[in-house]
């Protein structure tokens, strides 16, 4: 066994021939990618099959950690024999400085957290196997539950990579694994998110250099077709060469004109194909390489066409944007359903209906807004914040309930103000056709502004995706809906109101009567004294309609921001 031999026995009677230096330079974007992930409050861990010191050097170069690194190693035999008389089932381990190689402290599972907050911890496959084979189950499980404090895992076999990923998941982490080899298949499958990097190489020819990595796979299909056609030409050329030898042997023994004509034709065709072969040989070195999918790409849900780890950032950005968009859609749909349920139940019994033209324009605008939301792009910069995992999270659910209450109160207030102007003989015709009246018009105008309020309030955008200020199409549709509603509420163009089946609103209503009809006694008494100071005795109902619409939007938006500020968790970025 080579491991049982000492270094002095192996390195003797040797003749020095020179040094061989192996250099595998890091990609220029690796360090920037790791720093971006760490700034976004993601913990980055290196798991590799390379030697421990090599992995530590790479971890230092790509800025996985900027703190001093300690390695977990076995205590030397001399120290073990002098410190313990009886053999213990727990292995004797200690922390060794990766820079000086000196022992710093003995390993104790209880101190892993405190040591990990001050130093970057490293471990290799041999020590991990020693821990896993420990007879003391309590001690073993205690150590395995703290593997997330280690930053570098070296000399890891494929099954050890799997166990590290499983240990991280059992500790409550969501794990993204990025790998490019067959030995990463198990870890990619067990990770929550697996990203496989394609190892793309070129076909080598005699005299050519070693295979090189391809930067992208855009010309893959073209290259395969070119290679297929070139192989077909090669086969034709080889057949023609055989025919050439046959024709030449026959031509030496025959002097007829017919055979001379066949010979010249075969030679001309052979020369034409030979020229095609020469052209392929000249351009073959510049062709794009073939892409061969490996096992890693089959085992993982995501496959990157480039051999760079920045694809992990793209997966996180797109995932956050998708999750944020889904939650926003759920909130918007839930509020629309709650408002519609109130309109189709309570208000429907009072005879509130909408005209065909009103519903057509509103439906088209709402569909356009939903489409524009789905077209929102993720932000390039990763934020330390995380989107909520469910619509039932405290900030989202409490905000949703509060917005519904605000919108329902606005509907009750508007119907209370408009109902006295329907006349004493007004009898709601639930099953009858739509007929424009003041109540229908007020509720329609307020419903439009509620749609705007729902979208503006619940579409937050940043810090995960484009906000309303960046999404010009969404902003344009919402502004159109606001301008159209305010234009109808102001009654500047009576013909337009008539076209959209809106009834004329009273030009003057008694402010005190409207307040008494819409508010309970305990609320309208203090409000009457305030209104008498700042408002005239009578004002047009269109002013009240616009005021109720604007107040509804502002109050709902303020409530949402208040709940988010109260219940959202502050994220502290701690870079290990």
Distance N to C terminus: 39 Å
How many β strands by DSSP? Answer: 11
What is Rg? Answer: 38 Å
- Strand fraction equals 5-15%
Overall 3D shape:
elongated
Task: Report helical residue fraction.
Answer: 40-55%
Spatial strand order of the main sheet: 1-6-5-2-3-4
Described by strand count, sense and barrel closure, the largest sheet is: 6 strands, mixed
Q: In terms of per-residue confidence, which ranges show pLDDT below 50 for 5 or more consecutive residues? A: 78-86, 201-238, 243-259, 283-291
* Structural class by sheet pairing and helices: alpha/beta
Number of helices: 21
Mean pLDDT: 78
Structure, described:
By secondary structure, this protein is an alpha/beta fold. It has 21 helices and eleven strands. A hairpin with a 5-residue loop joins strand 3 and strand 4. Helix 15 crosses helix 19 and helix 16 runs parallel beside helix 21. The chain starts with 6 loop residues before the first helix and ends in a 9-residue tail after the last helix. About 13% of the residues have low confidence.
């Amino acid at each position: 066994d080579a491991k049982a031999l000492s270094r002095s026995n192996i390195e003797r009677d040797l003749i020095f021939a020179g040094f061989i230096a192996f250099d595998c330079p890091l990609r220029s974007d690796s360090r920037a990618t790791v720093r971006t992930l760490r700034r976004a409050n993601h913990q980055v861990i290196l798991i590799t099959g390379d030697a421990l010191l090599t992995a530590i050097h790479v971890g230092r170069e790509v800025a996985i950690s900027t703190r001093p690194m300690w390695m977990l190693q076995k205590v030397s035999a001399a120290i073990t024999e002098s410190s313990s008389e009886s053999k213990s089932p727990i292995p004797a381990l200690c922390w060794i400085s990766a820079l000086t190689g000196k022992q710093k402290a003995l390993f104790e599972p209880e101190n892993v957290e405190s040591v990990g907050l001050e130093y970057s911890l490293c471990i290799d496959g041999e020590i991990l196997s020693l821990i896993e084979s420990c007879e003391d189950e309590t001690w073993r499980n205690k150590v395995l539950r703290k593997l997330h404090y280690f930053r570098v895992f070296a000399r890891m076999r494929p099954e050890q990579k799997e166990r590290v990923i499983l240990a991280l998941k059992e500790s409550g982490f969501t794990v993204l694994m990025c790998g490019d080899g067959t030995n990463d298949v198990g870890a990619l499958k067990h990770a929550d998110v697996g990203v496989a990097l394609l190892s793309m190489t070129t076909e080598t020819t005699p005299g050519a250099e070693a295979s090189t990595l391809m930067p992208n796979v855009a010309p893959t299909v073209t290259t395969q077709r070119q290679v297929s056609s070139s192989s077909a030409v090669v086969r034709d050329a080889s057949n023609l060469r055989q025919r050439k030898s046959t024709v030449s042997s026959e031509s030496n023994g025959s002097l007829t004109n017919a055979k001379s004509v066949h010979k010249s034709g075969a030679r001309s065709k052979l020369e034409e194909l030979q020229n095609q072969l020469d052209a392929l040989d000249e351009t073959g070195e510049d062709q794009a390489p073939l892409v061969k999918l490996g096992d890693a790409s089959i085992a993982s849900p995501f496959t990157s066409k480039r051999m760079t780890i920045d694809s992990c950032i793209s997966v996180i950005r797109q995932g956050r944007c998708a999750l944020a968009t889904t939650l926003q859609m759920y909130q918007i749909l839930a509020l629309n359903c709650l408002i519609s349920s109130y309109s189709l139940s309570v208000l429907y019994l009072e005879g509130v209906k909408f005209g065909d033209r009103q519903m057509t324009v509103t439906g088209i605008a709402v569909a356009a807004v939903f489409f524009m939301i789905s077209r929102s792009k993720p932000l390039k910069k990763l934020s330390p914040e995380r989107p909520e995992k469910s619509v039932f999270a405290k900030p989202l659910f409490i905000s949703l309930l509060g917005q519904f209450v605000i919108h329902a109160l606005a509907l009750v207030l508007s119907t209370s103000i408009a109902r006295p102007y329907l006349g004493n003989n007004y009898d709601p015709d639930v099953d009858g056709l739509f007929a424009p009246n003041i109540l229908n018009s007020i509720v329609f105008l307020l419903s439009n502004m509620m749609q705007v309020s729902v979208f503006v309030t619940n579409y937050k955008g940043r810090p995960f995706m484009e906000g309303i200020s960046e999404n010009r199409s969404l902003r344009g549709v919402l502004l159109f809906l606001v301008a159209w509603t305010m234009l109808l509420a102001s009654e500047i163009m009576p013909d337009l109101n008539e076209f959209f089946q809106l009834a004329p609103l009273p030009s003057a209503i008694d402010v005190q009567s409207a307040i008494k009809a819409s508010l309970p006694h305990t609320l309208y008494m203090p409000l009457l004294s305030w209104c008498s100071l700042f408002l005239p005795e009578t004002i047009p109902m269109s002013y009240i309609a616009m005021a109720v619409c604007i107040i509804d939007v502002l109050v709902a938006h303020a409530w949402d921001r208040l709940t988010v500020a109260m219940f959202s968790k502050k994220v502290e970025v701690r870079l290990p």
